[in-house]
Amino acid sequence: MANANVSSVLQLLFLLIILSGNAVDSTSIVKYLPGFEGPLPFELETGFSFQHGVGVGEEEQVQLFYYFIKSERNPEKDPLLLWLSGGPGCSSISGLLYENGPVTVKFEVYNGTLPSLIATTYSWTKISSIIYLDQPVGTGFSYSRTHLASKPSDSGEVKLVHEFLQKWLNKHQEFLSNPFYAGGDSYSGMVLPALVQEISKGNYLCCKPPINLQGYVLGNPVTDIEFDHNHRIPFTHGMALISDELYESMKRICKGEYETVDPSNKECLKLVEEYHKCTDRINYSLVTTPLCEDDPSPDCYDYRYVLTTYWANDESVRRALHINKESKGKWVRCDWDMAYTNDIKSSVPYHMNNSINGYPSLIFSGDHDMYVPSLGTQAWIRSLNYSVTDDWRPWMIGDQIAGYITFFLFILLLLIYFYCCMNSLDLLYFGRYTRTYANNMTFVTIKARGHTPEYKPEESYIMFQRWISGQPL
């Protein structure tokens, strides 16, 4: 009888341990969001990385906050997409609520109550699972449990995000076999190509579990100042924002170098000053819309960001998202004062390396964005010297032109001899025998769209759906 009682007690304890463990995991599942009517029509998990044993950085002091939404179609087989926002220092909630997520903030005048959320029809989660990650540390709800001796940097973020992915997948092993894509927009264009390279190397050299990397997606990506900023001048001329005379004078006297002008070239400096007088009151994000003030009024596009700030700082929202009290004080959408080291000067070499390793990419560009003009993006793509396999043509939604598209093919015949460099790490990475690598880079413009997918979300969704499914655009 005594043995039976002991056995019963042990069974009860074992059951309690299991239940308590499940209870801990279930705290990150969000079934209701304040401001949204009824239960969420999708599966949402939120959390800080350490909640699942995946703190990152030295001594796991960096606690990155993420929103994870399972694919609404077939999460067991659909692609897994990591989405990084720009800035640096802009919360991934921008992606979730405005660019490609299943809910958005209802645009209405703030009346002191919690802003409302409504469902969207353009969510990329209809066909893929997405991890929206707040990075670098200090962005959104991400924070550090200790004082960081060094400030975040491009190269540092590459390491931390890779580490986060490895540990996240180790805790979510049901997604290990899903095709993985890295994605983002704006400033993530500096970090994400290097991250793709880091994941690829890690899969060969060091890191378990391997990530089933299949390609990457970038929207209006910051890539290289020489390309990005210098092409603002021909962009503004094409948009009739500066005169023919000013443009021709700038071309002749500045010789295409408008961002870092030689101080001795006084005439060019004067022309650049005249250029800024014409363009400084333009909304760089979408040149056809008014420029909003720092405190935007309800008739301004940016007013939705004010509503987001009210929503994310509400205590009921923080409880629903399981935000730690020690996490952050006031949530801000973009921390423009963040101390950050921009130590990747150009991501063009990373695009080339990713091509060598055979990863397809989708580079898309809103053609009314002045921050990263499509002309600059086309220029750095041309610098890769890929062969054009499908020339410039319109792509359609129904019978309407949604934008323009062109395909590039990179082919490399790589000869590596077994008897040479047999013990080299590079040999392990690239392989031992002759290989032919082919990488398709697809460049797409979206007509009348601005800096991020939020300006044309439905067109952006259709573009992504066709590309990720292997369909012709």
From TrEMBL:
Gene3D superfamilies per UniProt: alpha/beta hydrolase (3.40.50.1820)
Keyword Secreted: no
Pfam family, one: Peptidase_S10
N-terminal signal peptide: 1-23
Keyword flag Signal: yes
GO BP: proteolysis; secondary metabolic process
Family stated for the protein in its record: Belongs to the peptidase S10 family.
Name of the protein in its database record: Serine carboxypeptidase-like 7
Gene source species: Brassica campestris (Field mustard)
